[in-house]
């Protein structure tokens, strides 16, 4: 049970950081970002809201769009 809570919290944190990166790029909505980058809008919304178990492949694709390395992405969690 405790591991589920940890997973949920981690997915939320990943989603929040992706949301921050999206807004930093000037995209006000998930829909605009998803459509421009050929991502399924519903799935991307779930990722940003911590409702989807994101794969490494998808995370790497999103980080590539933002030009952020995996290391930079996760180091930003420590900075908070």
UniProtKB/TrEMBL annotation:
InterPro entries in UniProt: Cro/C1-type_HTH, Lambda_DNA-bd_dom_sf
CDD domains: HTH_XRE
HTH cro/C1-type domain segment(s): 39-73
Gene3D superfamilies on file: lambda repressor-like DNA-binding domains
Top-level taxon of the source organism: Bacteria
Record-level Gene Ontology MF annotations: DNA binding
TM regions (residue ranges): none
Pfam families tied to this protein: HTH_3
Protein name per the record: XRE family transcriptional regulator
Organism: Pseudochryseolinea flava
């Amino acid at each position: 049970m405790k591991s589920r809570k940890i997973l949920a919290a981690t997915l939320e944190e990943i989603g929040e950081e992706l949301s921050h990166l999206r807004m930093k790029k000037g995209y006000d909505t998930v829909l605009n970002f998803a459509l421009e980058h050929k991502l399924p809008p519903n799935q991307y919304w779930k990722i940003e809201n911590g409702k989807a178990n994101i794969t490494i492949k998808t995370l790497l694709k999103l980080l590539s769009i933002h030009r952020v390395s995996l290391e930079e992405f996760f180091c930003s969690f420590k900075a908070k």
